[in-house]
Amino acid sequence: MQKYKKILLAAAATLAFGTSAVAADKLKIGTEGAYPPFNLIDASGQVVGFDIDIANALCTKMQVECEVVTSDWDGIIPALNAKKFDAIVASMSITEERQQAVDFTDPYYTNKLQFIAAKGSDFKTDEASLKGKVIGAQRATIAGTWLEDNLGDVVDIKLYDTQENAYLDLTSGRLDGVLADTFVNWEWLKSDAGKGFEFKGDPVFDNDKIGIAVRKGDPLREKLNKALQEIVADGTYKKINDKYFPFSIY
What we know:
Blueprint: E1 26-31, E2 34-35, E3 39-41, E4 47-48, H1 50-62, E5 65-70, H2 76-81, E6 87-93, H3 96-99, E7 102-104, E8 109-118, H4 127-130, E9 134-138, H5 142-151, E10 156-160, H6 163-171, E11 177-181, H7 182-189, E12 197-215, H8 220-233, H9 236-244
Parallel strand pairs: 1-5, 1-6, 9-10, 9-11
Antiparallel strand pairs: 2-3, 3-4, 6-12, 7-12, 8-11, 8-12
């Protein structure tokens, strides 16, 4: 981002320009399926979460069927541009780097980055206190990039293919802390695995705008923007927000 949240290093490849490939009655939505509470696969094998509920609400407004397709995070923009799906609804930050490869809708929520570490641990977030600590983050995210850009010569950075694997190493003691999206950390801290951990310090970045990605020049962008305005205006967005969070993330 300086790129702040989920930045794909290979995203600029395979650009696809032109009109939308959306069928008249179906919209294929790409997501990761490994980023609770925003997108995850439940016990029955269904892809669920805040992102999916938003996508379904937008599809309802647009009078099309939603089909959800999962993709590894690192390859999700190339998959969009290869027309494996029509839009990415996967808590993706709007960044200058990504805008070279895709177009974004208006933001549908705003996020932050914040550290977590063991309760009671001596973990302060100033540079001097962090020196020599081992900090984890998900690869190709703004958290990972923020660490590299701001603390690359201060901490030992460990990057992971999924957020879950970063948390696993935190609980096993292989990490001193994790930097991730505040809302994702908030969800994990409520779990049994996260009960021995807590937020540390204030957010280090608090204006991360999250949008829906479409192919460059695709008129689908404006259709999604119109539908987003409608679900905010009629209260649908708030109902989805309140299902997952006791505070507004819009």
